[in-house]
Amino acid sequence: MAESGGWHTIESDAGVFTYLIENLGVENVQFEELMTLEADDLKQISPIYGVIFLFKYNQGDTSQGPIDGQLDRNAPNHMFFANQTIQNACATQAILSVLLNADKEQVDIGGSLREFKEFTDGFPPDLRGEALSNSDLIRDVHNSFSRSNPFVDEGTRKATEEDDLYHFIAYTPVNGVLYEIDGLQPAPISHGPCTQDEFCDKVIPVIQRRINRYNAGEIRFNLMAAVQDLRIKAVEIGDEQMLAREEQKRKEWETENELRRHNFVGFTYELLKGVVKEKVRDGTYDDWIKQTKAANLQKAAAAKKSEPED
């Protein structure tokens, strides 16, 4: 896999994913975080177009092919499947793997993504991955949702063995088959027959089997569902409270996304300078430092005392 080439990491967050696709021109689709692995919970927010799963990546996951299901090297030609050819792009790639494979009668992906899909139609997976990685529009929208970091250039930094690596994959029904779409695999992975109506019931056991491969204490997973804009559903069923909650959620997402675009290091630095200046002027600086050191030592001692004995 190539270096990031200007792609930055983004969070697995429903607000980030929703506004990202809206900025790409997708209409009437949002993402919802799932807190349980229950098919009934998934059905409550239907229609579901697919899910995005984030997990800690083990280097050996692709060494022997898929860990579950079967590689489908004869998947339909019109199916969008792209190899991941660059770091940090897997979140957006997984999102597009759901949306570009959705029924066009159900999901309006907008002119830009429709043009990209048509342009890459018939490309082999590696060239599709290169086309995605080199798309200025998709990269710029993706990067607009990365957290500002004044210390590390996420676009050039290489992962080390000490880093925890995470990976996004997509699950979606295409042509009556439940597919796992993982850009690090050579082809889509089939998990058997699956209609749109069966998706909720059939995808949960597949995800659960993947989770079960990890130690019981591992909880660093995240599951996002691509669904119809829930405000539309609220209007259709006449649920004013639901509509109000969804409108409030959008306002909160907008605020959070705006904050992601800024770093507050400069502000924090100036604030600390002001505090120090005040302490020096009042003659309490030395006592303040001593108290802080004492408090830190107490915290360290309490933490060490709470550690389990061997």
TrEMBL record:
<dbReference type="GO" id="GO:0006511">
    <property type="term" value="P:ubiquitin-dependent protein catabolic process"/>
</dbReference>
<feature type="active site" description="Proton donor">
    <location>
        <position position="167"/>
    </location>
</feature>
<dbReference type="InterPro" id="IPR038765">
    <property type="entry name" value="Papain-like_cys_pep_sf"/>
</dbReference>
<dbReference type="GO" id="GO:0016579">
    <property type="term" value="P:protein deubiquitination"/>
</dbReference>
<dbReference type="Pfam" id="PF18031">
    <property type="entry name" value="UCH_C"/>
</dbReference>
<keyword id="KW-0645">Protease</keyword>
<dbReference type="InterPro" id="IPR036959">
    <property type="entry name" value="Peptidase_C12_UCH_sf"/>
</dbReference>
<dbReference type="GO" id="GO:0005737">
    <property type="term" value="C:cytoplasm"/>
</dbReference>
<feature type="site" description="Important for enzyme activity">
    <location>
        <position position="182"/>
    </location>
</feature>
<keyword id="KW-0788">Thiol protease</keyword>
<dbReference type="InterPro" id="IPR017390">
    <property type="entry name" value="Ubiquitinyl_hydrolase_UCH37"/>
</dbReference>
<keyword id="KW-0378">Hydrolase</keyword>
<keyword id="KW-0833">Ubl conjugation pathway</keyword>
<dbReference type="InterPro" id="IPR001578">
    <property type="entry name" value="Peptidase_C12_UCH"/>
</dbReference>
<feature type="site" description="Transition state stabilizer">
    <location>
        <position position="84"/>
    </location>
</feature>
<feature type="active site" description="Nucleophile">
    <location>
        <position position="90"/>
    </location>
</feature>
<dbReference type="GO" id="GO:0004843">
    <property type="term" value="F:cysteine-type deubiquitinase activity"/>
</dbReference>
<dbReference type="InterPro" id="IPR041507">
    <property type="entry name" value="UCH_C"/>
</dbReference>
<dbReference type="Pfam" id="PF01088">
    <property type="entry name" value="Peptidase_C12"/>
</dbReference>
<protein>
    <recommendedName>
        <fullName>Ubiquitin carboxyl-terminal hydrolase</fullName>
        <ecNumber>3.4.19.12</ecNumber>
    </recommendedName>
</protein>
<feature type="domain" description="UCH catalytic">
    <location>
        <begin position="6"/>
        <end position="228"/>
    </location>
</feature>
<comment type="similarity">
    <text>Belongs to the peptidase C12 family.</text>
</comment>
